């Protein structure tokens, strides 16, 4: 029962909240659709923590996408052995995880210890988000380092990845993910919960990529001191 609830029902419920929550947020809180940046309150720590966290998160997400979505048969067809894939994936995942953790630690220290002004403007949802991110990243690093670097290793592509792809065809088999070490299940559950709170946090800014800037016309500047009819144009 619990297996079905956690690895069949929960993913779809969280996905529904993710979609409906974004629609609700966009229709009712467009002015809050921002990062709620606190850069004006403190810049030095942010200049280090933000790039580390964002680049680490980007590469971690790309690594997860590759491991979960690309079947083992595809990499074998390309001539990549399971051992080579495992070594490269663990090495890249460890580096990305270290960068991500470093950025997160800096951002946490900045928000809760370095600046009283930032701590004052931290919302309850910010605290929930940071707590969930910290636990999720910690669990992810545990399965990477403890199991795959210093442990005996685990090939999750035959179990966890198959379960994940089955979600898209509405036929998830929870026995696949429960066959993996428990930490993989925890990681999946935490990811689902993170998906559910996403629309109600500052994470919505991920979808606000300024694509329109690529096609907008040039802005023309003219000197005020120029004589009438002879304005100088600056690009």
From TrEMBL:
Pfam families named among the record's database cross-references: Nitrate_red_gam
Protein name: Respiratory nitrate reductase subunit gamma
Species of origin: Oerskovia merdavium
Keyword Electron transport: yes
GO molecular function: oxidoreductase activity
Keywords linked to the UniProt accession: Cell membrane, Electron transport, Heme, Iron, Membrane, Metal-binding, Nitrate assimilation, Oxidoreductase, Transmembrane, Transmembrane helix, Transport
Alphabetized SUPFAM superfamilies for the sequence: Respiratory nitrate reductase 1 gamma chain (SSF103501)
Signal peptide feature range: none
InterPro entries assigned to the protein according to its UniProt record, in alphabetical order: Heme-iron_electron_transfer, NarG-like_domain, NarG-like_sf, Nitrate_red_gam
Domain NarG-like: 3-224
Transmembrane segments: 6-24, 45-71, 83-109, 129-154, 174-198
Top EC class of this enzyme: oxidoreductase
The keyword Protein transport appears for this protein: no
Classification of source organism: Bacteria, Bacillati, Actinomycetota, Actinomycetes, Micrococcales
Subcellular location: Cell membrane
Coiled coil, from the record: none
Membrane topology (UniProt): Multi-pass membrane protein
EC number in record: 1.7.99.4
């Amino acid at each position: 029962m619990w297996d079905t609830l956690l690895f069949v029902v929960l993913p779809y419920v969280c996905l529904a909240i993710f979609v409906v929550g974004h629609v609700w947020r966009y229709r009712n809180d467009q002015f809050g659709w921002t990062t709620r940046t606190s850069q004006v309150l403190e810049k030095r720590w942010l200049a280090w923590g933000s790039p580390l966290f964002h680049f680490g998160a980007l590469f971690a997400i790309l690594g997860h996408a590759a491991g979960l979505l690309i079947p083992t048969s595809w990499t074998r067809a390309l001539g990549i052995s399971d051992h080579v894939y495992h070594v490269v994936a663990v090495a890249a995942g460890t580096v990305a995880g270290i960068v991500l953790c470093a950025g997160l630690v800096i951002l946490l220290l900045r928000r809760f210890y370095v600046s009283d002004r930032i701590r004052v403007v931290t919302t309850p949802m910010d605290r929930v988000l940071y707590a969930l991110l910290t636990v999720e990243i910690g669990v992810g690093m545990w399965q990477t380092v403890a199991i795959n670097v210093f442990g005996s290793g685990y090939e999750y592509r035959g179990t966890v990845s198959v379960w994940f792809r089955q979600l898209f065809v509405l036929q998830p088999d929870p026995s696949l993910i429960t066959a993996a070490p428990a930490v993989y299940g925890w990681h999946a559950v935490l990811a689902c919960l993170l998906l559910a709170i996403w629309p109600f946090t500052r994470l919505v800014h991920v979808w606000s990529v300024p694509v329109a800037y690529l096609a907008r016309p040039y802005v023309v500047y003219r000197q005020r001191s120029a004589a009438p009819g002879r304005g100088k144009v600056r690009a």
